[in-house]
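Researcher: We're teaching a course module on how sequence relates to structure. For the next exercise, students receive a sequence and then see the predicted structure as tokens, so they can try to spot secondary structure elements on their own. Here is the exercise chain.
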Amino acid sequence: MKIIVNNINISIEKNQNLELKNEVIRRGIKEEYIEKIEYSKRSIDSRKKTDIKFVYNIEVTLNKDIDVTGLNVILPKQMEESTYRVKIDVERVAVIGAGPAGLFAALRLCELGIKPIIYERGEDIDNRDKSIDNFVKYSMLNPNSNIQFGEGGAGTYSDGKLNTRVKSGYMNKVFLELVENGAQEEILWDYKPHVGTDILKNVVKNLREKIISMGGVFNFNTLIKDIVILDKKVKGIKIQNLKSPIQNEEIELFDHVILAIGHSSRDTYRMLYKNGVFMESKPFAIGARIEHPRVDIDTMQYGKMVSHPSLEAATYSLTYNNKEEERGVFSFCMCPGGVIVNAASQEGGSLVNGMSYSQRDGRFSNSALVVGVKANEFGDDIFSGMEFQDKLEKKTYDLVGNYGALYQNTLDFLKGKSTNRKIESSYEMEMKSYDLNNLFPKVISDNMKLAMGQWEKTQRNFISENANLIAPETRTSAPIKITRGEQGESINIHGLYPVGEGAGYAGGIISAAIDGIKIVDLVFTTTD
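Model: And here is the predicted structure for the students to work with:
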């Protein structure tokens, strides 16, 4: 028999396992009945800096069935099992993109007995790693295999954060698959689960091998140059082998194409638009990375308990709402103990992102600090948001003279003056001091300053001589949505199924993976 016990608060100074057991007993369960205690969720309550607590939800296995009526425990809900079968006669399905949405869509197809063919413009993870290393060391950009493109998608070279606001019955499957393929078991119960780039690279590789063992076929270094549409139906795709010395284009015939492109696939957006695929502009966000010495953020969150061995590198989440403009400013993709990386994917354009490894033990912590941009705010064209991103990236490249970044101390940014000294940073490539008020449109810089001014009053150490802005952060999400109907299909092209971040239906690793599975089940199965 299993029961659930929620909302257990235990000081980090106490023996956690002993106190958990004692709490179960206090709630009316005899000690001799307790067989096993497992975490369902664990978070940190650091509001009172002198008494930081872990907060647990646990699942308790009992060695006998007992009457729990009147006890402060919960019986787990019995989950109904669904049996899926292939709904339509399908032999060939193309999956475009090997990020989370594409990988999990391909895995689900394999589970249904459909053997997908996966096309990825970037390299497999090992060769992608080499291309990124060459870029960092020598500024040699591979425009098709970089921080944005390649096996695992953009999320592989990020923090590997798995927290999401999406509520879905598929979530447990995604987490279990990640653990089965090498992720840490803690992600099953950690309140803010993360894998880390170092481990996530192996997870991605193992997922690929699993898909291949089930009949899936991968084609790396393969760019989708065009999509063949006849009478508003998909008939195939035109591909180009980027490693071939001739790079001839070939047509592969498919009636079903799962479009799992990333949010940086600007050339693919334009190709789809040229072919009449319906899409629309959507909001996104623009700003910079804010970087602190890790000890400053840890102290901000933990106070005098900062050096306690049970506490990991601290995270934060900050928001500011400009009610007059109906515009949000917020921290995003916070990387405790992480590094700032150059996330360029187009020649002549430069931008930054955050990344961290599984141990999160670096000297610095960073987060995006971004301002919401409304759909078509900088032009009426469908691609005005994308072109706005591109303009900022090219301006940065020109100012630095290379694939580098612009920096400014937070205090100087608020005063509107350049920082006249070098700064310490985790960023490894070229950096140039610049007044970011002159980089961004006034609406962006003004809202950043409003939010920072507010946070300066409430968050100790957040704005200081040690806190610096590294810019620009332009690729928080897709500025385009490839609109689909209720059945998961493009609203005007039959056989085309947009999924994940690049389609505008996800915002991270987990939500993208869930979306990939969900659309496969919606399109190719029925429930008994």
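Model: If you want an answer key for the exercise: Residues 197-213 form the longest helix (17 residues). Residues 175 and 376 are 36 Å apart (CA to CA).
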